[in-house]
Protein 1
Amino acid sequence: MKAAIAWDQAHHWPVRVYYEDTDAGGVVFYANYLKFMERARTEWLRELGVEQQKLAQESDIGFVVAGLDIKYCAPARLDDHLIVQTTVTQAGRASLNFAQRVVLANHVIAHGEIRVGCVRLSCLKPAALPETLLNRILNLDKR
């Protein structure tokens, strides 16, 4: 049984739906929810003081999506204001598991679990998460 997620403690990232995000029917194209979630994880990292480009240049470290499971519950449309909520559910030596959800007017319209691996960019082999990042993530649980 999974522990309940405290979504009020999660990172919140606002997203406005633009014309380019929609399909011919005016509904957000399903793959764009993954882009919204990716941006939210990037902004979550920034708030922890981690810039991915700097991490890549200085440490040869990057992140790759290793797996995901996403469910779509309701559509978003042009000009909708969404909130992407992000939280880490598990931190391993070389990976992070995230729970994310997309909320429209207090209703969850999509949610997913994403597994992200840390890799050495020069060879794309698994690498340990930088200790400073792991410590920052683990300290989030103590708030």
Protein 2
Amino acid sequence: MGNSGLRQHYDTASKTGVLQISDKKLKDIPVEVFNLSEHLRNLDLSKNKISSVPDDISRLKNLKQLNLSANHIEVLPDSLIYLKKLEMLNVSNNSISSLPSHFSNLNNLKQVYLSHNKFTEFPSQLLCLNNLEVVDLSNNKITRIPDGMSDFYAAELNLSQNEISNLSEDLHQAPRLKILRLEENCLSLDAVRPSLLRDSKIHTINLDGNLFETKQLVSVEGYNEYTERYTALKKKMF
């Protein structure tokens, strides 16, 4: 779609702060987007054919939500870290394998969606982000959860459909983690540490599709404490 076809979108965005130009067959981010730097709060460029994000992205200093999902992006630029007000980043369904080295400077991030990419390691840049609420890393090639999770602050972590066979020793120390999704990985029953069930704040852990039957969790030390948290949650809901 040519610039003339998008002009109305730009005019509206200058008033509302919201620009949605998804599914327009764009190969690049139009320069007109960056000219809206003073106004934009929400930018949706999903379902296009964008292969790279220019350094000019740093001009969008008031941006709170950025959706670049379902594009052809392989690398996120270091300049992304200047979006200090960013609260939601969605780059799912791309070909990204790592995050910018100083990604943890984005300390207002609440939601990060990285599913269906090419991550082989859990991104350590997600640690120490104090305002995180939700992280989705499903459908990647991650093989382990590394140590350092005591500095992981999200309440919900989705790692389903990876290749995880090892969980970190300190995963139970993630201070706010309550929902952990690990379906369809390569975990044995021995990989589920008693501390994760006994000492964490997790009330919902999904382990279907691993190398053991989920009913075998009953035999793991700490299972009773885990079910007590789950039951307490259900009582609050009803």
Protein 3
Amino acid sequence: MTKPESTDLADRPRAGAIRRPIHQILVPFPVAYFAAAFATDLAYWGTAEVMWYRFSVWLIAGGLVMAALVVLAAMVDLFRNQRPAWIHALAYAAAVVLSILNVLVHSRDGYTAVVPMGLTLSGVVLVVLLFAISPGWTLTHRYRIGAKA
């Protein structure tokens, strides 16, 4: 006689739940802010409407705040049995440094604050960020016991 299958969730085995690194959850936010800043720079270039310029400045500043949170979370992840993915972490750091320069360029007044330097920087930041997050929104790798590094 076979035992009937249990419908109780406590009796079911867990699917190997893999804990995601903390920073991996936060990385999409600065990427979205910087991508939106590039889009608003393009809109400003096409319309010369001051509203788009102001949106760009706020989006870049918000992206920098979120990037700082990602860096803090990545540092916590490094203490939680992670190792850095150096090329992607350095690309992410380069994008943050370029964004700091970009917010300074955008802080100038007038059309020349965005065109051509601000628009170019926004585009470069977006390309560098897309490279940095290409391995799956992560800047670290998990150590595995018995696996080759």
